[in-house]
Amino acid sequence: MQISTPTQRLPKSGAPRQSRSDEVYAQLKSDIASFRLVPGDRFTESELSERLGVSRTPVRQALVRLQQEGFVEVFFRSGWRVLPFDFERFEQLYDLRMVLETTAVHRLCTEADKIDAPLLDELAAIWLVPVAARSQDALRVAQWDEAFHCALVAAAGNAEMARVHRDVTDRIRIIRRLDFTQQPRIDATYDEHAKILKAIQRKRADQATLLLRTHIQTSQAEVRKITLHQMHLARAR
Question: What's the pLDDT at 177?
């Protein structure tokens, strides 16, 4: 059993053991989200320890956390495996995301005294640009897309809503980024984000909410088409 794509070696650190465990956890979660590790990949603690340049203790601690979150599973005497995606759980998280984001956008259009206008201006600087100025970097656009939706919720001024939304975002990141493995989806994201922002700027609550709902549903539909083959192609990008 071995990891088919090397995991990045962590820099040396004099940080306490728990902090080192956090670093390993973050690295492995990033590897899964970026498809350096894909569902079905198997590995041992010793392999990870060698690749990351750390002892087995922080590796084991990180893997237990990932196991609790449903990303990996352990086999007695035979190492670990990245779990297949639980699409039913992702569907439920997308439903929750829909509620949070549409509520936030409605508030952005109807409660002007509570919104974070500078934050919306920052979004406009990224998404309301000429076609020639758009980024073609799939990973960057995926990160910007995630930040766009988090910013919409944050701008609505409800800290608890934003906290829950960040948690949902973190849990769907692994599947969501597969929506950016094809150029047409990158182009569509720019177009759809621009329309949502313009509707918000014009305080058209019903239109903005409908556009956002359609945008999320389209992304969700694309995610449903994902195959293991596409995940391996994503890792090769």
Answer: 74
Q: What is the pTM of this model?
A: 0.74
Nearest CA to 1 out of 37, 59, 47 is that of 47
| CA–CA distance, 148 with 126 (Å, rounded to integer) | 9
Please check whether residue 100 is in contact with residue 165, taking contact to mean a CB–CB distance below 8 angstroms.
yes
Domain topology for 17-82: Arc Repressor Mutant, subunit A (1.10.10)
**Nearest-angstrom CA–CA distance, 22 and 143:** 21
DSSP-H helix ranges across the chain: 17-33, 45-52, 56-68, 87-110, 117-127, 138-155, 159-176, 183-201, 205-224, 228-236
**Distance set, CA 21 to CA 26, 27, 164 (Å):** 9, 10, 24
- Parts of the chain with a pLDDT under 70: 1-18, 181, 226-237
pLDDT at 89: 86
Tokens 């549409």, residue located: 102
* CATH class assigned to 87-236: mainly alpha
Q: Where are the domains of the chain?
A: 17-82, 87-236
Instruction: Tell me the DSSP string of 163-224.
Output: HHHHHHHHHHHHHHGGGGSSHHHHHHHHHHHHHHHHHHHTT-HHHHHHHHHHHHHHHHHHHH
Answer yes or no: same fold for 17-82 and 87-236. no
Q: What would the pLDDT profile of 18-35 be if each residue is shown by its tens digit?
A: 578 999 999 998 888 777
